[in-house]
Amino acid sequence: MTEEFLQFIWKHKLFDDQNLFSTGGDRVEVVNVGKQNKDAGPDFFDARIKINNVMWAGNVEVHIKSSYWYQHNHQQNSSYDNVILHVVYEADADVFIGETRKLPCLILKFDSCLLQNYNQLMHSTQWISCYGEINLVEKFFVRNWLDRMILERLERKSADVKKMLKLNKNSWEETFYQIIARYFGMKVNADPFQQLAQVLPLKILARQKNSLLQLEALLFGQAGMLNDSVDDAYYKNLQQEYLFLADKYELKPLPSHRWKWLRLRPGNFPTIRIAQLAALIHKSSSLFSKILDCVNYKDIQHLFEIRVSDYWKSHYQFGIESKSQCKQLGKMTINSIVINSVVPIVFCYGEINEDEEMKEKALKLLEEIPEEKNSIIDKWKECGVEVKSSWYSQALLQLKVNYCDEYRCLQCEFGNRIIRMKNYQEYGK
Questions:
Q1: DSSP labels for 327-366?
Q2: What is the DSSP letter of 45?
Q3: Partners of 85 in the beta sheet?
Q4: pLDDT tens by residue, 78-129
Q5: Residue 262 and residue 246: Cα distance in Å, rounded?
Q6: Single pTM value for the model
Q7: DSSP string computed for 97-138
Q8: Other Cβ atoms closer than 10 A to 318
C-alpha cells in the first residue's frame, strides 16, 4: 500500500461511496473529491463533503494510517487547518486540529483487485510494466494519451529554447543557430558543437558569409582544429585565414580534446559535420525566418540539402585523402535535425507569440516525418503499439523516459486503465 495509490483511488472516486460513515459514526457523502495538489500542503483542495447533511468546503488529506498526521507534523503547519476530512487506509489514532476540533476520518474501502493490479505493475520486471497488456487499451485512449505526451515533450523542449533565447537577448536567429549546431553534432558531439556556436556568434559568421573558405576557417579554428602542423595546402590556407580573423574579432578557440572521434562512422566525424555546417551557413541567410515561411516538411528539407566544399569531398580528416564522395546530409540526419531543433523552436515561437497556427505547424511537421529508428521504438512496436510517424515516436520516447522508467503508472492513462481492468490478473499471468 502506498499513499500515492490511495490518492489515485480518491481522485478517481474508485472507492465504495455507498453508505459511507466516518470512524466517529457520522454519515459522509462525497460531493466533490477536490483538485489534487502536487505541491506542499494538503493533498486535495476545494473538496465538497457532506457530513451528517451539513455541507463542508475545504481540503482533504490522504494517509495510509491516521497517525501519520502527527508523524508528518501537520499539527504544526497552519496550511492544514482547513482540512475537513482525513482519508486513510487504517485508522489507528484520533487527529485534532487545534485543541478541540476532532478531524472527521474516513476509511477508504475499494475492490481488492485494484490494489492487486497496481502491485503487479509496480513489481513488473518487463521492459515496461504493461508490456503484455498495453494492447488491451482502446486505440482512442492511446491516441489521446500520446497527444498529451507530445505536448509535454514540446513544452519541455520549448522551456529549454526560452532559456537560450533569454541568454541570446531574444535573438531568434542566434538561438536557432546554436540549436542547429548542437544537433549537427548528434549525440556524441552535441555539447562541443553547441559550445562552438557559443564561442563563434552568428553575427561574425554573417560578415564572412560570402566566402566559404573564411566560414570554414572560423569554424575549424574556433573548434581548436587548426593548431597542428599538417603538410596540406588547404589546411595552411585555413590557418592563415583564421589567424587574421581571430585577431580581427578577438576570438579564443575551444580545446581540441573536447571532440570525440572513437566509434564514429567517418561520415559523422566532427570535421565533416563542421564542413556541412559551414556549407549551410554559406547557402542560407536568415535561416530561421525562412523556416517560419516554409509551408511543409519538403520545403524545410530543401533548405538542408547542402554540399560540402571540394576538399571535403575527398577527405574525412585533414591531410588524409580518401575516395571522393558528395557527403551531403542524409535524409535520416535531416529528419533528426528537424525533429530535435526545428520543431521545438517553431513550437516555442508559437507559444511566445500566442500563434496557434505556428504551434500546429510544429505538430504537423512531426506527422510528415517518418518515425525514428531506435531500440526504444522497436520495443514499442513489439508491444503492438502503432508508430506511423515521428509524432508517434517522439510521444512514445516521452512516455518511456518520463513515465515507464519512473514507474509512474498512476499518472499514465495506460496504467490507469489497466489498473481498473477486472480481467487484468488473467492477462498478467
A1: -PPPHHHHHHHIIIIIHHHHHHHHHHTT-HHHHHHHHHHH
A2: E
A3: 60
A4: 999 999 999 999 999 999 998 889 999 999 999 999 999 999 999 999 999 9
A5: 29
A6: 0.88
A7: ETTTEEPPEEE--B-HHHHHHHHHHHT--SSSTTTTTGGGS-
A8: 17
